[in-house]
Amino acid sequence: MLLRALAWMFSTDLAVDLGTANTLVYVRGEGVVLNEPSVVAISQKDHSLLAVGHEAKAMLGRAPDSIQVLRPLRHGVIADFDTTERMLKYFITTVHRRRRLVYPRIVLTVPTGITQVEKRAVRASAQQAGAREVFLIEQAMAAAIGAGLPIQEPGGHMVVDIGGGTTEVAILSLAGIVYSKSVRLAGDEMDEAIIQHLRRTYSLLIGERQAEEVKIALGSAYPEGGDDQKRDVKGRDLIGGFPKTVVVTGAEVREALRDPVMAVVNAVQACLEQAPPELAADIVDKGIVLTGGGALLRGLDRLLHEQTDLPITVSDDPLTCVAHGAGSLLDQLALLRRVAIRA
Q1: Predicted TM-score (pTM) of this structure
Q2: Which residue in 45, 143, 253, 292 is a FRET match for 314, CA 20 to 30 A apart?
Q3: In the CATH hierarchy, which fold is given to the domain comprising 187-258?
């Protein structure tokens, strides 16, 4: 028993927020030590790993046929098992670069609505990457813990985690999820909405990377004075085939984002409609907490307040909230086993 306790205390256990857009790794006792895009570049010739993370993302849309640039996760779940395993193994090795590789416990976050098959794929991927024990935690639970919500108390708390591939909406009480809704529509669909807008309006074709840059620079969910902001967007003319540049405004980007943004709002409203009366009363007082990269979309908190008439709070560090929540469970073994889900 003592040996197990010492192993737990001095192990290099990890929490991994395995996201569609970014993967974050939290090391027990150190915090978030890695935040890289979930992108991998592989040689078509010998299938060797050429780049992972930021370096691979820079190749998106720019690589020759001899290099395949992949995003192995889609909508929060594994779309390419082998590539995900290699990416995880690379990140784990990177984190342990100055010490002999041990086999850590790993806490992995997953969307609420994934299937048993998908859960087993995530668990197997982590085990193949070197984990000796794997715990799966729902992203909404990890987000709530990372946001500092007292989830073990008998009171209702509502969290909305907007990532790259999924939006997780959940009502929590007594360390459990009372009701949740997972929508496979989030940051990636916002990028795609911008791509389609430019295609329809200007016959301009741009890639995912540039669409994300436009979203960050001009994107908003509510008119707050940024409508006149402009940005040059470069791409390929679908009619003439030549490179060209167009100027887009904040107002048209907000309009382009209307459908995916309203899908998030509708998911929140659907969850509120299912809340038990006592918990609904708690949420009226405490409001809704936003986490994830999508929480940074300008005006989203104001739009949600207008649509729900509830207080809306954006967590202090929405991008790392899920990783910090999952990581904090490494110091609370009893709570970790209580909230972990089975595959």
Answers
A1: 0.90
A2: 253
A3: Actin; Chain A, domain 4 (3.90.640)
